[in-house]
Amino acid sequence: MKEIDWSNLSFGYIKTDYNVRINFRDGAWGELEVSSSEYINMHMAATCLHYGQEAFEGLKAFRGKDGKIRIFRLEENAARMQATCQGIMMAELSTERFREAVLKVVKLNEHFVPPYESGASLYIRPLLIGTGVQIGVHPADEYLFLVLVTPVGPYFKGGFSTNPYVIVREFDRSAPLGTGIYKVGGNYAASLRANKLAHDLGYASEFYLDAKEKKYIDECGAANFFGIKDNTYITPLSTSILPSITNKSLMQLAEDMGIKVERRPVPEEELSTFEEAGACGTAAVISPIQRIDDLDNKKSYVISKDGNPGPICTKLYNKLRAIQYGDEPDTHGWVTIVE
Ligand code: PLP
Ligand code: COI
Question: CB within 6 Å of ligand 2 — which residues?
Answer without folding.
Answer: 58, 188, 222, 281-284
